[in-house]
Specification:
Chain B: It comes from Nocardioides astragali. Chain B: This is YbdD/YjiX family protein. The structure holds 2 protein chains of 2 kinds. Chain A is mostly helical. Chain A is built from 29 helices and no strands. Chain A has 2 domains: 552 residues, Amino acid/polyamine transporter I; 56 residues. In chain A, helix 13 packs across helix 22 and helix 15 crosses helix 26. Chain A is globular and about 75 Å long. The model of chain B has no long low-confidence stretch (mean pLDDT 90). The radius of gyration of chain B is 16 Å and the shape is flat. The longest helix of chain B has 17 residues. Chain B has one domain. Classes of the chains: A mainly alpha, B mainly alpha. Chains A and B meet through helix 4, helix 10, helix 13, helix 16 and helix 23 of A and helix 1, helix 2 and helix 3 of B.
Chain lengths: 713, 61
């Protein structure tokens, strides 16, 4: 290191340390949200510069003389040498979704500090490591999927368990994401109006690209975004348009609508709906994230939430039950560590990487960016008045759904908010009510609207609120469309093993029936969540979080296995630290969700409590009828069984892998399916910014008549 | 080339790459070097739609 870079990194380290110290030491004073923002940025920078670099060069041994699959197979389709900045954008757009936004919002019930620490430490030591290492190993295997790699490198039993786990987890994730949308749109005619209009807008864009002006993507995206903004503004006038009543939909109606929509979207050709929706959602995603970062810096809001609430210690929080350990780690999910990313880091992205060393900026860097989104969401949720936060996020059974009862309930929690303040907050964003608007999306939208109003001025709170709702719903719906399709392909592929005809993607009976099964499964879980008398989000979100973290356990197990098989036992701690912590938290959480004798946490104890009461002819609050009692009994049995199944599948994979570890350690390594070395002829820089030497190398290479300038910019 | 035009150019380049519009430019350029007659834009985009139809891309949560 030069003296200059030592000075720069020294400064970054000092800034980070000061920010962390302020966060750690301030209690009961006014703490600016910027401390969190800069603690995060400084920590990311240091982790990226030193730890990610160490993993890339020392642990993985990235080798730029080795041709990547993109270079070897370059077919302009799935294998496609892509400029690193462009691939970074694609990869980030694919991994970022509603998860990092919703998780931190719910975790804010424990205070802002636990969430902040886990989002930052977790991403550095676990999440970004997983994304990068999986990306690297998949790249070395011509872009094989996670399931394929588990089967080939760990074993058939582990492979089958992983396949079932991936499918089941995907269904839960789709159901919970859809539940977030339903909760955000229920009884909100403005939201329904704007989101409803995204369908004709996307259809129009699809028609434009297919028929009117093929291929003009940026042009049609600009038109689409313009129409989208009009749709949000137009939603403010639903009352004047006389549509208010028709668009005030109940959760059950929205569920039915979503299921029908999901089925139709998954059998329509992608160009009609999915592709254009994807353009819109990607554009909105990146735009809003940038806007939020700018807004936070300009507004510099003060944190209203406590650093650590009593709920963290006592586990009695109304948003979700359970103590800080292990539930904060489960709830944050995607922003710190997300198993779902392993599905993107294997399969799609590795087939497009130009040079091996770029896995650092794409895998590790992409995940740092996602973590930053999670931090922004956590801040947005923590600048809201805590009384309002808990009124919005406690289930309807607890708040009673009415300003007076809600205010009483909040007072019981130890926070103060008056019924008038609750009504005024709803009126400010032109919603009928904000009480028990669970799921995280309305809270985030309210926080964002507060930040944007402070940052940009102008009394546009209602517009910003619905803008934020629209953007979350838009990319959840895109994820639901795309996820349903992926699920359908997986199902067709699996059944195709015994009945080859079924795997034919263009055979309508197969694609329709497989779509119906996938939509039916998540639609059913969605319905279970929507009608749950105890509140769907607090029942299902832990299942979602645990499922996602368990998928990460499978991915990290694969990483550990491959390092041992490659004879790099001394480096297994790199994915091993994340794996160990992930297994400790998810297995503790799974154990509590299955076996805890606290009915608020343990699904089966909950079941017992309600079924005993049912036998005694009693009705327990918040259930109001025998039917609801039966529903609680059924739902807790279902959730508990699923929870146990997920944990069991992961244990099978880890146990299977353990056998391979022992064998590989004894043998000092084992053969793997890594593709042999082929010489690379491509020249491109490794990092975000090219060094002078890299620039010179690219210039020489291009002067010799190579390449369409992948290294240039 | 002054600073603003350079930024605008880079941005334009990035957007075309990101949206995949640059695929068409590359194809046309390749046809020019090989002397092959390029297909129409419509035909080219239909092929890309077809590929997308058969390669699912997961979106994350």
């Amino acid at each position: 290191m030069t003296a200059r870079s030592m000075a720069i990194w020294g400064t970054v380290a000092v800034v980070g340390a000061v920010c962390w110290a302020v966060l750690a030491l301030s209690r009961g004073e006014e703490v600016s949200a910027l401390w969190i923002l800069f603690a995060a940025l400084a920590s990311y920078a240091i982790a990226y510069r030193f730890y990610a670099r160490f993993i890339a060069y020392r642990v993985l041994g990235v080798d730029d003389t080795r041709a990547t699959p993109a270079e070897r197979y370059d077919n302009g389709r799935d294998f496609d040498v892509t400029h690193r900045h462009v691939l970074f954008g694609h990869h980030f757009a694919a991994i970022a979704g509603a998860g990092p936004l919703v998780g931190p919002v719910l975790a804010a019930q424990m205070g802002y500090l636990p969430g902040t620490i886990w989002i930052i430490v977790g991403v550095i030591l676990a999440g970004a490591v997983q994304d990068m290492v999986v990306l690297f190993f998949s790249m070395r295997r011509d872009g094989k999927s996670l399931g394929q790699m588990v089967r080939e490198e760990i074993g058939v039993v582990g492979g089958i368990a992983a396949l079932i786990a991936v499918f089941a987890i995907m269904i839960i994730i789709l159901a919970v994401l859809a539940l977030v949308v339903v909760n955000a749109l229920a009884e909100s005619p403005w939201g329904v109006f704007s989101i409803g209009l995204t369908i004709p807008i996307a259809l129009f864009m699809g028609y434009y690209l297919r028929v009117l002006r093929p291929g003009r993507v940026s042009e049609v995206t600009a038109i689409g975004v313009g129409l989208l903004l009009l749709a949000i503004i137009g939603g403010g006038y639903v009352e004047q348009m006389g549509l208010e009543e028709a668009l005030t939909l109940s959760k059950e109606q929205l569920t039915l609508g979503l299921v029908l929509y999901g089925f139709i979207a998954s059998i329509l050709p992608v160009w009609m709906l999915l592709t254009p929706r994807d353009y819109l959602s990607t554009f909105m995603k990146i735009g809003v994230i940038v806007l939020l970062a700018v807004g936070l810096v300009l507004a510099a809001p003060v944190l209203q939430q406590e650093a650590v609430t009593d709920f963290a210690r006592e586990g009695t929080g109304p948003v979700f039950a359970g103590k800080l350990f292990p539930f904060v780690f489960i709830t944050i999910a995607c922003g710190a560590l997300s198993g779902f990313h392993a599905l993107i880091s294997s399969g799609t992205t590795p087939k497009m990487v130009a040079k091996e060393s770029q896995v650092r900026m794409i895998g590790y860097g992409g995940m740092l960016m996602e973590s930053f989104v999670a931090i922004s969401a956590l801040i947005a949720a923590s600048v809201i008045d805590p009384g309002l936060y808990f009124a919005m996020n406690s289930p309807a059974g607890a708040t009673g759904g009415d300003p007076t009862t809600a205010a009483e309930f909040i007072a019981g929690l130890g926070f103060t908010i008056t019924p008038d303040q609750l009504t005024a907050a709803a009126a400010a964003v032109e919603e009928q009510t904000l009480i028990s608007r669970t799921g995280g999306a309305p809270t985030l939208a309210f926080g964002m609207s507060q930040v944007f109003t402070e940052a940009f001025g102008g009394g546009l709170a209602a517009f910003w609120y619905h803008f934020a709702i629209m953007f979350e719903a838009l990319f959840i719906l895109t994820a639901v469309d795309a996820g349903t399709r992926v699920g359908r392909f997986m199902l067709q592929d699996t059944i195709g093993n015994v009945w080859p005809k079924y795997a034919d993607l263009s055979w309508k009976p197969a694609s329709w029936s497989a779509s119906a099964v996938v939509v039916g499964l998540w639609g059913y879980m969605l319905y279970v969540g929507v009608t749950d008398p105890l509140g769907g989000i607090n029942q299902l979100f832990p299942l979602f979080g645990i499922a996602n973290q368990l998928l990460a356990a499978i991915a990290l197990t694969l990483c550990v296995t491959l390092l041992i098989k490659h004879g790099k036992v001394k480096w297994v701690w790199v994915p091993g630290v994340g794996l160990a912590w992930d297994l400790i938290t998810t297995m503790t959480a799974s154990y509590q969700k299955v076996f805890s004798d606290n009915p608020a946490i343990g699904y089966f104890t909950q079941r017992e409590r309600y079924s005993d009461a049912l036998d005694a002819g009693e009705v327990l609050a918040p259930a109001t009828s025998t039917d609801q009692m039966e529903q609680v009994v059924f739902n807790s049995t279902l959730n508990g069984t699923l929870q146990a199944l997920f944990a069991l599948l992961v244990i099978v994979v880890v146990a299977n892998a353990f056998l391979i570890w022992v064998k590989a350690v004894r043998a000092g390594g084992l053969p793997t399916t890594e593709v042999p070395w082929h010489e690379s002829h491509l020249v491109a820089p490794s990092d975000f910014v090219a060094t002078p030497a890299e620039k010179e190398a690219v210039r020489e290479w291009e002067a010799a008549g190579h390449g369409p300038g992948y290294g240039g910019h | 080339m002054n600073g603003i035009t350079r930024i605008a150019r880079t941005l334009h380049w990035y957007v075309r790459q990101f949206t995949g519009e640059a695929k068409w430019d590359e194809y046309v350029a390749e046809c020019a070097t090989t002397g092959e007659r390029p297909m129409t834009r419509r035909e080219f985009e239909h092929r890309r739609d077809h590929q997308r139809e058969h390669s699912p891309r997961a979106q994350c949560c």
